[in-house]
Amino acid sequence: MILADVRAHILKNRRFTNWASEVEGRWTIEDLRADAGYREDWISFDCLAWDSRSGRLYVGLTAINNDVFYVYDPASGGFSSLNFRRVGDKFDAKFHRSLEIDDDGMIYAATALLHDADQQRQAKGGKLLRYDPTRDAFELLAVPVPPHYIQSICLDRKRRIIYGFTYPGEYLFRYDLADRRCRTLGFVGNGVLMCQPHGAAVDQQGRLWGTWGECRAFEDKVGRVPVRIFCYDPDADEFIWFQHGFPTVGDGDLARADHMLLADDGFIYTGTAAGGLSRLDTRTGAVEALGKPFPRSRLAGLAQGADGLIYGAGNEGYGKHGEGEARLFVLDPQTQATADLGPIYDRRIGAGAVKVHMLVAAPDGTLYAGENDNVLRSSFLWECRVTR
């Protein structure tokens, strides 16, 4: 198998040259709001959701101007804004990992933050929303844990539950669609590092799997297993708090979950922020290491294709000339063998992806990779086609 064709789809295209000299370690959100370039064009493709009904891709952005919700039409090759600003406010800076399409075509989304704690009295908290594409209408469902914002959501279509993780306080909430009841299930952080999963997963029994952080009283550094796995059963309303986490791949690796993917075989495949790959047995909670597909960090992009294979994107890096070093790999769940498919690089424009934040698979085998946090230019949406 090879990565035969890669195309960059460009919504914004501005270069930035002052990140290291003026922005990094110095910025406030108000500084970036005041700068026309960063405000209008420094965007990230943070979350993606493929809509089989329309054959279109819904896109959640980070955008300082709060224009964070778009749809991409492969037939026309164009993006259209869904005008989120009619219901959002200036603190709704992104849909982070928070787009879910329900069986009836309704889309659920949630807002994440960029502001600092000094604005928490003005910022009222992350919004959980429903969008009806047939009516082009938004509905505010809840502000689940004010004043905290929402990093990710996960939809249980069968039980009609939306789970969400908040930031900066790391709370897990549950929103029941049937009775519109929202409640906080627990705190999963530890005040030292970010412990929640970048993307949680619901297994075939309807249980939510994620991660939580140990709290080491009387010590000022994390322990040997700072990030651990949990399982929440919504029917019993009970947790299992496992004392182990995902496998590490080197010294200093905290094994933070970058993405958790439920595959057809019932296992949850997980990529970590350090670039490790593993699979979790939902019958026992045991975890099996599957190696490190690439030498560098980040494995936030995992998707199962219509062919049953699992595709992943990682290897974050800029390269010598800032062209981007993200790559695509494939895993065969039956043999557990991985293969490097090549760089996510569009030779037509001489540019590649720097960091992939999410990967989705269309029914025809096309893979879409959302790039984020590129400090040299606006991030792009990448279309990848693999051939045997």
Structural class call reads: mainly beta
The gyration radius over C-alpha positions equals 20 Å
Give the % helix.
under 10%
- What percentage of the residues does DSSP assign to strands (E)? 35-45%
Which ranges are low-confidence, i.e. pLDDT below 50, for 5 or more consecutive residues? none
Distance between the termini: 4 Å
Global morphology: globular
Main sheet makeup: 4 strands, antiparallel
Please tell me the overall pLDDT: 96
Spatial sequence of strands, sheet with the most strands? 1-30-29-28
Strand tally: 30
What is the number of helical segments per DSSP (H or I, 4+ residues)?
3
What does this 3D model show about the protein?
It is a single chain. With 388 residues, the chain is mainly β. It has a domain at 1-42 and 294-388. It has helices spanning 19-23, 29-34, 36-41, and strands at residues 2-9, 44-51, 56-62, 69-73, 78-81, 99-101, 107-110, 128-132, 137-142, 149-156, 161-167, 171-176, 181-187, 201-202, 208-213, 227-233, 238-241, 257-262, 268-272, 277-280, 287-289, 301-304, 310-314, 327-331, 338-343, 345-346, 351-352, 356-361, 367-371, 381-387. A four-stranded antiparallel sheet has the order 1-30-29-28, with no helix packed on it. A four-stranded antiparallel sheet has the order 2-3-4-5, with no helix packed on it. A four-stranded antiparallel sheet has the order 6-7-8-9, with no helix packed on it. The longest helix is centred in the N-terminal third of the chain and has 6 residues, at 29-34. The model has no long low-confidence stretch (mean pLDDT 96).
